[in-house]
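Lab notebook, bench 4. The sequencing result for the construct came back, and we need a structural model before the next group meeting so we can plan mutations. Quick request posted to the team channel:

Model the 3D structure of this chain.
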Amino acid sequence: MSAPTLRRGTLGTADIAFFVISAAAPLTVMAGVAPVALMLGGIGAPVGYLLAGITLAVFAVGFTTMSRHVRSDGAFYAYITRGFGIPVGIAAALIAMLGYNGMEIGVYGLLGSATADTSHALWGIDVPWLPVSLLGLALIWYGGFRSIDFGAKVLGVLLVAETGILVLLAGGVLLEGGASEGLSLSSFSPGNVLVPGTAAVLACAFAAFTGFESTVIYRREARNPERTVPRATYIAVAFLGFFYAFVVWAVIQAFGEEKVVQAAADDPGGLFFSAITAYVGPWAADLMHILIVTSVLASLLAFHNAINRYALALAEEGVLPAVLGRVHPRHRSPYVAGAAQTVLGAVVVIGFAAAGADPYAQLLLWVNTPGMIGLMALQLLAAVAVLLFFRRIPHGEGALRTVVAPLAAAVLLTGAIGLVSYNVELFTGASTGVNVLLVSLVPAVFLLGLLLARRLKRRRPEVYASFAAEPSDAPEGPPEPAPAAAL
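Done. Here's the predicted structure in token form:
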């Protein structure tokens, strides 16, 4: 009897898009980060989100084109291996683990602080953050333990709720005609966009898209992956880019172009709550408090599922311990990888708590920052890998997809990484020494990966030689029916 595998043909385009958009946590990004973007870039901030979306859409052109030629669950590291070779591919795999784990584990701090803030705002109760974060770890473990279609349904509900409250806010502003001076499109004029603060806005905007490329991780579980994966990628990028820009523009109209920057500076954490209270009602602000917590939970579940599938793929490659490659016989989930990731998260969370760290300013921001930079570095490597890959093989793809788009994406992503690294204090609020350490983690892990590749080549040549090879199993077939117990 063969070992259980992930359930094939389970996820459609919408399901995969839910995972990606949920990981971005739109409500949390808007209420928590957009006020900072307004403070830094003024009323031209909405354009920063559009420019970031355009950059990543250009990247997606080459990325999704290459996905038609690469059948692997390893996502970034498989693509990078095809372009650069095995050593860089193994290094990229370690950066991917750093990136996704950093993006998830840090958010447990946000879960604790957001829940504490919500409890205090609604009921006047002060809740300690650590028990909340540990409870979140248990809930997310269970969500990842269950079948992937269970996770897709949960994320679908939570995503509709968090985007719905933002649409409600924007709709209220539009119906009321905005502040006293009325609605205006001045945010999109060159004079308000080409200002010194736009560079910092772009850094915030790129961070808001982190994880969008994880569509490819679900290839094995997707229905007709050659179509659903590219579609989900474009839908996620387009939705996030336009939605972010629209919501930020609506908040500008809510306060007025002359007052919004000062309002954001006076109370960045309360900007969105003040707007929805004024244009919809206090009940909507209370609901937004609750939905921020569920938004964080959705982001955690999406990243948890992505990490588990990366760990599963690396275990199957022989790079990580084989036990992490076990799949649950009923739920068809990488349950051992999920348990290991949960334990790692608990160790980090408890460690920060024991050190007396702030859950938001330190656990979230310090752990998220190298994760964000790591994932952006992977995007850059993948863009260059597309160029190198299509130079090596015969293909019928056009030059726009295989040369122009990946080259443009590489240039733009290089600039984006430079902006984020230069403005890293915006994300961490830390000292120069801490910032240097956090940024240095990514190249340090890359070098560690190169050393691991060298060690594998010398001691386990068969594992090294087969790294990121095309799978030998049969092509993706029709969906497997989900047993009733897994639904």
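Residues 473-487 have pLDDT under 50 and may be disordered.
Will bring this to the meeting.
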